[in-house]
Specification:
about 30% strand, five-stranded parallel β-sheet, single chain, 2 domains, alpha+beta, FAD/NAD(P)-binding domain, binds flavin-adenine dinucleotide
Length: about 425
């Protein structure tokens, strides 16, 4: 069969690694100009792999397969790089932290972590690309932004800038950044959408390493969630010891994110505090909701910048005019000191405060007034898509709405390829 794989991220890597020796002709269509310069994605930034049955996606992925995927990525590091991979276990039940968080109403989430780091991810991707390119069944087409996928009889016409091809089978693996293509396909085939309507909105929180040193040392990433009095689920996400806060660039707005290299460079740890918001009818545009809030933050910050506020000023509803003892790791031209209360809806702001104050009961200093908050951080969820609808059109990874992590997206790709004849 002639197969189009649209997008080359984690899910496509999983799919191609499994499908490459099945005798099909695989055409990988990636909108970036090369393997490295892609849109926003954890496969090109940070690279924290984790094995967990309680987070990363809503598909059932056996732990064995997750471990296999983690090993696949680690095998693409050289020996010295592999030694530099930081590992940890978030909330092993034997951990003294488990009981501490649990007793304060948090749900500690168990996972094993392997942190490759932004710098070494380049090598991993480069080597995977090299392996794939040496396979005669695989052809890469870079700089092809696919704009439509059309049924033509029992085949598909795939169209993009300067590209047109006919395929027997199409695998869409465009991640969250490819939502326009999904929207376009769903416009013609609304039957592929099963559900949606969730967005996570919150802030990136930054504090000195020493406050969370014990947690960082024991588990590298601590993941906890809690149901706030507002009814919203609040959680920590993407903890970066000795990390940097960075901008996440979209076409018409910016948000905030965090990452760290394999060798830590800063004195600060950052993590996201996210509030899950789900909507009911008639509203059906959670991406629009997250986008509007992010844009409001940019407007108040005067352009493609985010707002920065101390936690103390956030509590007191005061614009931050002066930073205290915690120095931001985000470069100064990327933020403006301001008041995040002017941007966050009240229910979300209250949920964050309750969560941080409760965290402060477990980790002294975590809710210290000098600590920093950057807004907005947003996690868009794709609509959930139905892969059972068509035999030869499949959606894998984050664009399918069923995964949210490198490990799960890669496993999803592998599972789809295993089903190929
Ligand atoms: C900044 C950031 C950091 C993250 N860090 C982590 C982490 O440390 N650990 C973790 O587990 N998860 C992390 N994630 C989540 C993780 O990146 C995703 O869950 C995972 O990469 C999803 O894989 P995917 O293949 O579905 O999408 P992606 O990996 O995003 O790949 C999609 C690919 O499709 C391409 N594409 C998009 N549209 C088109 C189009 N129309 N035509 C052609 N090509 C297209 C994109 O350029 C991209 O290369 C992070 C996400 C972000 C945004």
């Amino acid at each position: 069969m002639k197969i189009a794989v649209i997008g080359f991220g984690a899910a496509a890597i999983g799919f191609v690694s499994e499908a490459k020796d099945k005798g099909h002709e695989l055409h990988i269509l990636e909108r970036s100009k090369d393997i490295f310069s892609s849109s926003i994605s954890g496969i090109r930034s940070d690279g924290k792999l984790f094995v967990s049955t309680s987070m990363g996606g809503d598909i059932l992925v056996p732990e064995e397969m997750q471990k296999e995927v983690v090993n696949f990525y680690l095998e693409h590091l050289d020996e010295s790089e592999r030694k530099g991979v930081k590992t940890g276990v978030s909330f092993d039940k034997r951990s003294p932290f488990f009981g501490k968080f649990y007793s304060k109403g948090f749900e500690p989430i168990n996972a094993s972590f392997y942190h490759i780091g932004t710098d070494h991810l380049k090598d991993v991707l480069g080597r995977i690309y090299e392996d794939f390119s040496n396979n005669k069944n695989i052809k890469f087409h870079f700089g092809v932004k696919v704009e439509s996928v059309e049924f033509v009889g029992d085949k598909f016409k795939v169209l993009g800038e300067g590209f047109e091809g006919t395929f027997d089978y199409v695998v869409v693996a465009v991640g969250r950044s490819g939502h326009n293509l999904i929207k376009q396909i769903a416009l013609v085939h609304p039957e592929i959408i099963t559900s949606g309507n969730i967005v996570d909105v919150g802030v990136r929180y930054e504090l000195p390493n020493h406050i969370v040193q014990d947690l960082n040392e024991e588990m590298y990433e601590f993941k906890v969630q809690m149901r706030a009095k507002t009814g919203y689920l609040v959680r920590t996400f993407c903890n970066n010891p000795s990390g940097q806060v960075v901008l996440e660039e979209y076409d018409d707005f910016v948000t905030v994110n965090g990452h760290s290299n394999s060798v830590g460079a800063s004195d600060n740890t950052n993590f996201a505090v996210l509030v899950s918001t789900s909507f009911t009818e008639p509203f059906n545009d959670p991406i629009g909701y997250g986008t509007y809030i992010s844009k409001l933050g940019n407007i108040l910050a005067g352009g493609r910048k985010v707002l920065l506020q101390t936690y103390g000023d956030f509590l007191e509803n005061k614009r931050t005019k002066k930073i205290g003892r915690v120095q931001p790791t985000l470069p100064q031209d990327n933020y403006v000191l301001g008041d995040i209360n002017l941007v966050l809806p009240r229910r979300i702001a209250l949920s964050i405060i309750e969560f941080m104050e409760r965290l402060g009961d477990v980790v002294p200093g975590i809710a210290y007034p000098d600590n920093l908050m950057y807004a907005i951080e947003v996690k868009f969820y794709s609509n959930k898509l139905d892969n059972g609808r068509y035999n030869n059109l499949k959606f894998i990874g984050d664009c399918s709405g069923h995964t949210r992590s490198i490990t799960y997206a890669t496993c999803h790709g592998k599972m789809a390829a295993k089903d190929l004849q």
